[in-house]
Amino acid sequence: MSDETYVVVGGGLAGGRVAETLREEGFDGDVVLVTVEDRPPYERPVLSKGYLLGAEPVTSAYLHDAAWWRDHAIDVRTETMVTGLRLDDRLLELEDGGTLAYDKLALATGSWPRRLDVPGADLDGVLYLRDMPEAERIKKVLDSGGPLVVVGAGWIGLEIAAAARTHSVPVTVLETAPLPLQRVLGDDVATIFAELHRHHGVDLRLSTGIARIDGKDGATVSSVVTSAGDVLPAAAVVVGIGAEPQVDWILAAGLRGEDGVDTDATLQTSDPSVWAVGDIAAVDNPALGRRVRIEHWAMAHDSGPVAARAMLGQGAVFDKLPYFYTDQYDLGMEYVGHVPDVTTTDVVLRGDATDASEPLAFQAFWLRDGVVEAAMHVNLWDTGIAPLEALVGKRVDPVRLADTSVPFDQLGV
User: What are the coiled-coil residue ranges (predicted)?
Assistant: First the structure.
């Protein structure tokens, strides 16, 4: 029997997976998971996908029900905020003035939405999608018929727009860049997403920001004024302009990192008793040969078990390629790899991606000097992501890559 205490900070998917795996791997010491939320661990993708679409209940996001955590002797402490870390003493400082001792610690504090800084941003009805209560508020707006203004045409913003249009809610998306997802996908593929949303009735206003939000009686959102001076009626404004890793008190304690917490391939930080997982982990990833920090579901899902096994001395290594997916209207997409700078890559399309009025079915590849850095497929579920993943890191002939008659196993050069 172990007399050690392993503590996990964070009630999202990454933290939940750490605690879950510790028990699966036979650790019989104390496991404590602390979360600022008022409920046990859950994952986020359901909130912007199945739940807003009306296809899944919000409760489907939970990793396990409350009884599972009790049955596995995992002490889930809800509504508990950590404010400090004393590495030498192996102590967490809590907002209520107490402390929590640990022998080993996993940090899974995640990211929080970047806040909008314009007049009226504090009005009731300015919403962000990060947790269950926020998702439930957005769902009420969709059920009431809107209209909705979405600020930011990233993944979250576009998924919310797609959910709104699925409910026949009028929606306007404001994006300061010339194209949605431009920084991630590049012009060619970003244009496909712009056409997709316009085909489904989204009022997509590009190179357009938000000047202010006006409120009814100065309290509740009633309209949005764009940077072009247009006035848009709004029952609510949903903001999706990026996220920031929650690492202030972590880095203040002395752990190394800048935009996140630096870890080695085992997810161990600069302190040998502390690991970092999920959004905040800037991992020295051997699959990429460089340090990266990834804010996607797969990172949380996969890094938690690796950290748990590393905490148990099993030599686990995080060597997976970054992966994410999205569902928008009849478009289902999977993406694997990592592109540090999309402006310096060549994009190769394989298949027909020209008609947004039909369900799209194609693949896209991002090449640097002939080497595949990332790949994605849209609606090609028979092929799936596996053969694309096998091409990441390989040198290919771009002409043959674009030729659908050339089998994948004959593309490498």
Answer: none
Domain that holds residue 59: 5-112+244-311
Global pTM?
0.94
Which structure tokens are listed for 332? 């289902």
Residue 118 lies in a domain: no
> 98 to each of 83, 95, 226, how far by Cα in Å?
10, 7, 47
- 139 plus 185 within the same structural domain: yes
91 falls within a domain: yes
Dump the DSSP string for 28-54.
-SEEEEE-SSSS--B-SHHIIIIIHHT
Could you report the per-residue pLDDT of 226-282, keeping only the tens digit for each? 999 999 999 999 999 999 999 999 999 999 999 899 999 999 999 999 999 999 999
- For residue 245, cis peptide bond before it (omega within 30 degrees of 0): no
Say how many CA atoms lie within 13 Å of 379 toward its Cβ: 13
List residues bridging with 148 in a β-sheet.
171, 236
Sheet holding 274-276, edge to edge: 74-77, 30-34, 5-9, 104-107, 274-276
Q: Do residues 322 and 294 make contact, with C-beta atoms less than 8 angstroms apart?
A: yes
